[in-house]
Design goal:
Elements: H1 3-33, H2 39-44, H3 50-60, H4 66-78, H5 92-127, H6 132-146, H7 149-163, H8 179-213, H9 216-223, H10 228-240, H11 242-266, H12 271-280, H13 284-312
């Protein structure tokens, strides 16, 4: 793929993201403005006078028509201002950026768990198709897909933390302060999140690998005397892994949103805990800013996934 062709493809994809971002901002704005309650009243408390509430509404722009409020909010977002918390007045963007590394660490460890578990299981299931190992892998994958991550996390706490005392039950220590304690605390939440993604990757890789093993170039390799093991590892696996790139990117984006309840269960101060606390305290500004931030991250991850897939697979035409 030439640099010029890839550059045009990248520009076109970015332009296609513009209407998606617009729809995301509209949905986030309207969704939260349809919630009953007055943000100014929430910020000042129930004891505030009507005059004080009215003055804050003017300051926050809540007295303007809804379209004007939307344009004002979007204008602030474009400038990097996601608003201020209604509870303590802190910058929403600052709060989100403080919680982001924690959530990012859990997500990265979860996707690594998914790859380390899903790829070997998928290879074994495809290599031993129809065998007992394939059936066991299928049953375990279906079980992992059926059990919610938060329920699996609770089971892990009860068994590995409370009963066996192998890992801490919850909490968080920054990686910069104590690497060992940090990793010990991250094991249970990252594994509970990653097992579902591992099942998705394993099922995807199994189907992709079986399809590639039946392709003409693999049959030709076998006809030339290439062993079954070499045909699998040198010829089939590289091509079969390409769909895993797409699935891995989508799972990574999904984990960013799915970490909300898991962080609450394990007491981890990430974006999920920040979002839940803001919802419970009706801090609409924080909820609105964080939901938009997460949506933008998901869009960027999906874009990077598409770009990496087009780079890895020369059969894809991007012109």
């Amino acid at each position: 793929m030439g640099d010029g062709v890839f550059g045009r493809y990248l520009v076109r994809r970015i332009f296609l993201m513009v209407p998606v971002v617009f729809l995301v901002t509209v949905m986030v704005f309207l969704m939260l403005h349809l919630i009953p309650g007055d943000p100014a009243r929430v910020a000042l408390g129930e004891e505030a006078t009507p005059k004080a509430v009215a003055a804050l509404r003017v300051q926050m722009g809540l007295n303007l028509p809804l379209p004007a409020q939307y344009l004002h909010w979007v204008g602030q977002v474009v400038q990097g201002n996601f608003g201020r918390s209604l509870l303590d007045g802190t910058s929403v963007l600052k709060d989100v950026l403080q919680a982001l590394p924690v959530t990012f660490e859990i997500t990265v460890l979860a996707i690594l768990t998914a790859l380390l578990v899903g790829i070997p299981v998928g290879i074994i299931a495809a290599r031993l198709r129809g065998s007992l190992a394939d059936w066991i892998a299928t049953i375990l994958a279906l079980a992992a897909l059926s059990i919610p991550a938060f329920w699996l996390g609770i089971l892990f706490i009860l068994y590995f933390a409370v009963r066996l005392h192998m890992f801490p039950a919850g909490g968080y220590v920054p990686i910069t302060k104590n690497l060992g304690a940090n990793l010990a605390l991250m094991v249970l939440p990252s594994v509970s999140l990653g097992l579902r993604s591992a099942a998705v990757i394993a099922r995807m890789l199994r189907g992709s690998l079986l399809e590639v093993l039946g392709a003409d170039f693999v049959r030709t390799a076998r006809a030339k005397g290439v062993s079954e093991r070499r045909a699998l590892w040198r010829h089939a696996l590289r091509n079969a892994l390409l769909p895993v790139v797409t699935v891995g990117g989508l799972e990574f984006a999904g984990l960013l949103g799915g970490v909300v309840i898991t962080e609450q269960i394990f007491g981890i101060p990430g974006m999920g805990q920040l979002l839940v606390n803001a919802i419970l305290q009706r801090d609409i500004t924080t909820v609105q800013g964080e939901v938009l931030f997460i949506a933008l991250i998901v869009l960027i991850v999906n874009l990077l996934t598409d770009l990496s897939y087009s780079l890895l697979d020369p059969r894809i035409q991007v012109a």
